[in-house]
Amino acid sequence: MITARNIARYAAAPMPAAALAPMATAAPFRERLLITTLFLTVLASSIAFIEPSPHDGLMGVLAIAGVIAGIRFHRILAVPLLLLLGWNFFGLMTLLNVPGQEKTVQYAVTSIYLALAALLFAMLFSENTVARLKAMRSAYILTAAFTAICGAIGYFHLFPGAEMFTLYDRALGTFKDPNVYAPFLILPALFLLEGMLTRRIELSGIFFSGIILFGLLLGFSRGSWFNFSVALAVVIALSLLTAPTPKARTRIIGLTLAGVAVIAILLAILLSIHSIGGMFEQRAQLIQNYDVGTGGRFRLQELAVTSVLNFPNGMGPFEFARVHGLQQHNVYLQAFLVYGWAGGLSYILLLVATLWVGFKYALVRTPWQGCAIAAVAAFFGLILEGFIIDTDHWRNFFLIMGIIWGLAAASRAAKRKAQMAPFPAC
Predict the structure, then answer these.
(1) The pTM is what?
(2) How is the chain split among helix, strand and coil, in percent rounded to 5?
(3) How far apart are CA 29 and CA 72, in angstroms?
(4) How high is the pLDDT of residue 46?
(5) Which domain holds residue 218?
(6) Within a 10 A sphere around the Cβ of 3, how many other Cβ atoms?
(7) What is the mean pLDDT of residues 320-337?
């Protein structure tokens, strides 16, 4: 049998330096250009209140920089390529159900763009992995802190016009929807917390994680709170499983218990503030008014199941909302409603495959293992949140997907180079 002890021993095996040498192959200037463009592209990703956003424009520049730097397509990336291709192909076919509608074409184009973005990020992170991850991680933390500060400014109305950063008394930062703003903050928070658990605690890490987590609280998104809780639990579990020594595991357990205590105390203090405590009490209720009733979320999801069964070729973008008045708020029902049965199945297989390689290569001991753990944990949380919201057009969702596949490609290449042995025999 393969035991947890065997997995931990395998995960703890260091990656030989020789295996990592091929990760930096581009000429220095071309690589600096790519890393700078990557940093700026991710830094602009929180500016999402306008369409198209600056991030979307920079994605084109990033693709050009990638071509100049000579990014390559690794064989493992054929899996997401084929599944994304199938998902979008069947999505295009459903446009025949809603001809002549400009918004539906825009919806399909957005799906194709996000699929290409995921593949681009995967190719980027498959080589020179450490340097490119460092640039992405730094930019993501900075932009998350920026939008979280904007959300706090809006929530507390710190200056005239600050309400532009809120919606329905909930922080939304530089996004258009609090339910998109809050999940955006989870991956950078996990980056910081994973680093503090497994490596060292720095004042900058405490500062930025505090800002980001405060912004997450002020988003008052029940789904995002659940998403973060699950993702953090996965980070802790994987960190314990892959810890190289008993001392490291003891450190993780001790810091986890101390962190829970600190968060509980800080949360109690924050909830004593009337404007926060009252909103928290309202939003923390399991069932909201818009969940029940004739036009509630649950009733719409029942109707969506019926529609999925009645339309094997899909209804097309926005068609369910046109017929029933509102969206069903479930990305899996959305996948089958918009992309048809074949497209929906492609989407489900894409998520399963991404989770599989994410967890598999998060166990491999590499210099980027911490980022791999944070990414698969964030992706797992997003998959669960998808049961109550549509996530198929979230930019950070496809960034995380690209990170997971890129790190899988990098780990496979390094493992093959080092001719690492499989799990120890029983």
Answers:
(1) 0.90
(2) 75, 0, 25
(3) 18
(4) 95
(5) 24-285+309-418
(6) 11
(7) 88
Q: Both tokens of residue 126?
A: 């498959």
Output 11 or 163, whichever has higher pLDDT: 163
The string of pLDDT tens digits covering residues 56-115 is: 999 999 999 999 999 999 999 999 999 999 999 999 999 988 887 778 999 999 999 999
Evaluate whether residue 408 is within a structural domain.
Answer: yes
Predicted confidence at residue 424, as pLDDT, reads: 41
CB-CB contact of 228 with 189 (8 Å): yes
Closest CA to 390 of 190, 177, 101, 230: 177
Nearest CA to 147 out of 192, 207, 211 is that of 211
The answer to whether residue 423 is domain-embedded is no
Q: Is residue 303 part of a domain?
A: no
Query: Which residues, other chains included, contact 137 with Cβ-Cβ below 8 Å and sequence gap of 6+?
Result: 188, 191, 371
Contacts of 342 (CB under 8 A, 6+ apart): 86, 90
Assess whether pLDDT exceeds 70 at residue 164.
yes
Phi and psi based region of residue 168 (left: phi greater than 0; alpha: psi -120 to 50; beta: remaining):
left
HSE value, Cβ hemisphere, 13 Å, CA-based, for 40: 16
The two structure tokens encoding residue 357: 């390689």
Q: Give the DSSP letter string of 19-56.
A: HHGGG--S-HHHHHHHHHHHHHHHHGGG--SSSS-HHH
Which class for 169: exposed (0-12), middle (13-18), buried (19 or more C-beta within 10 A)? middle
Q: Report how far residue 296's alpha carbon sits from residue 288's, in angstroms, rounded to the nearest whole number.
A: 9
So what's the pLDDT on residue 407? 97
At 83, list the tokens. 């599944």
For residue 366, being part of any structural domain is answered with yes
Cα(365)–Cα(12) distance, integer angstroms: 5
Is residue 52 reached through a cis peptide bond, with omega within 30 degrees of 0 on the bond before it? yes
Number of domains in the chain: 1
Answer yes or no: are the C-beta atoms of 205 and 196 closer than 8 Å: yes
What mean pLDDT comes out for the span 296-325?
Answer: 85
